Amino acid sequence: MDKSQAMFQLMEQYEQSGQNRVHFCAQAGISLSKFGYWRSRWLGAQRNSEPQNPPFVAFESSAIPLPVACELIYPSGICVQFPAIDVSVLQQLLDV
Question: Which of 38, 61, 68, 71 could pair with 7 in a Cys bridge, judged by C-beta atoms 3.0 to 4.6 Å apart?
């Protein structure tokens, strides 16, 4: 096992431990700065290994939809079209 694998495994142990960083580092025998360095690398690797599909947000609206034709284009280029939408639902989508 190389150093990266060992430190990534340690980061996974930290996630499961429920301890704060100070206690975990003391128990593992590593400095807080070393922990921070490997934690940022591990989090970056986690982000890169996740699927790149955007998440969808489930929501419910009890209000009566108003007949507003709408096209919502996110900065990522994703386009969502609505033949009619409740204005409060539109606000939820814009807050995502």
Answer: 38
